[in-house]
Each structure stands twice: as C-alpha cells, then as structure tokens.
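re: ur question from yesterday

yeah so i grabbed the chain u mentioned. its 200 aa long if i counted rite. heres the sequnce exactly as i have it in my notes:
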Amino acid sequence: MTRNYPTELVPLIAELKKLPGIGTKTAERFAFELLGWPKEELLFLGEILLGIKDKIPPCIICGCLTNLGCCPFCDQSTRDPTQLCVIASARDAFAIEETRTYKGLYHVVEHLLSPLDGRHASQLNIEKIQKRIHQNKVGEIILAFDSTLEGDTTALYIKSQLQPEALSISRLAFGLPMGSSLEYIDGSTLSRALKGRQTF
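ran it thru and got these structure tokens back, copy pasting raw so excuse formatting
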C-alpha cells in the first residue's frame, strides 16, 4: 500500500513497480531519486525512453535486438545455420554469447506460455520456427528457457509441435537452479549447461 504521497507521485511509483524485481519500497526509492534529478536529466531520460523501441527494433529474422534490420547473430558466414537456439527474450542471446560456447542461430519467441497472464500457444508463432528449420536445414533445436514452470510448459509445447520435423531437440542441462532466470546465471554455469544439454 502506497503511503499518502502527493497524487502526482503515485502513478510514477506504480509504473516503476512494473519493472521485474521491483517492489513497492524500491519503486518509492527510485521515484524520490528521480525527483532529485535536474530537469535536463529527466528530459534526456524521457527522450531515451520515447525513442528506444524505434531505434532498436527486433531483428526481422530472429527477433534479437538490432539497429541494422538484420542482426549479427543471423550472419551465416560466421554462425552455424544447422543449430537453432530458441529463447524467450533477446536478452538471453547476449547471456549465451558471453559463454563463447554456442555458434548457431537464435530465435526469440518473446514470451513463455502462461494462460493466466494472457500468453497463449498461438502467440509463439511456431510456423516461423518451422520455416527457419526448412530454410537452413536445421539439425538441432536447443530450447534455452528459464528453469521455471512456464519455461518447462513452453519447452514441452514446442517439442510436441516440432517432433514431426525429425530433428534433434535438446534443452539446457538441468544443472541450472530451479526457478532461475538465464539473466542471473554466471557465464561458466551457463556454458556448462550448454555443453551438457540433453535430448529433450
């Protein structure tokens, strides 16, 4: 419950709480911190927020972030097109790249299945994954999702939809802590998980 703050401050706190891992106390602290910023810095922050989606759109092929139309992760002169790593967020691609272990392509599904939150199977766009499999003669799909109920459900669904493609489907090794997010896994752990992936 937000304290009896000025009416104009309440919406800012509410918006900050939408960020992952931000509770009421932290959102209140951030809001008061922003109140202490010079007006010029607040205007600059506002300009960045207003333009960021237009300046860094998703790659038209894989869904990772780029300002070039097609991202470096889709450059088949430097990547192995026969491997396709399916991830829930463009952020996960950068985490995996830091391990210097994986050299294949990526595909972002943008969300994990969660019917209660309005995220359904129809939004995964399985047809786009199937199209890339055929175009690149993909031999292995790696499902690199968070080790959560939503991640498990999404992995099982995608596996069921891609089984007729007659390819190897693997998932990151379950050495990843249960309930963990790839964003917070250190590079060496994520590297071992990639190397130890199992047929799924």
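noticed a couple things. The CA atoms of residues 130 and 162 lie 7 Å apart. also The domain at 72-199 is CATH 3.40.1360.10 (Dna Topoisomerase Vi A Subunit; Chain: A, domain 2).
anyway ttyl
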